[in-house]
Specification:
Length: 200
Amino acid sequence: MHPNPAFRSDDRALYAALIEETGIGMVFLTTPDGPRVAHVPLLLTDAGTLRFHLALGNALTRHLDGAQALAVVNGPDGYISARWYSDPDQVPTWNYLALEMEGPVRRMDRDGLHGLLEDVSNHHEARVAEGAPWTMDKMARIKRDRMMDMIVGFELTVEAWRPTIKLSQNKPAEERNRVIEGLKGEGKLALATLMEQFAK
């Protein structure tokens, strides 16, 4: 994470928007078998906890309950060419959004897992443009229960939020505009749009 305080933010609504838009993140833990990471869909609750599930056979599953873990979500990113600056005494860099969240993890009971799975599918099914939303009750109960036996739900209580929102805030407005145009020319529209929104 970049140490420049210009790239920090205390905007929890921005954190929530990044998690919601991205939908997936990484959970890291040092285990007796060494460092491990799992890529998981994440849901942020109003209470500030992250909920996710893992396969029973995942290398993290048996170690997470009661552990202090780190979750990371990454947003749009892109290479920033020094040629886009008017000042020749510049170097290339990388603009990006990243959010680290650290805290203790607890294992959910089966009712909690069921609720998590419903929330995840409802949240993302609402974004699918065509057709009726898929729901868990469309499955045969015996099949659904068998599949639930193969996964474990977890909840991470976020005690530390560590964001980096590096969008050329340390550059003058005219240089940021040149970077935005350069990104658009490279097809990096999501990052360019974020830079435009963040500059307001």
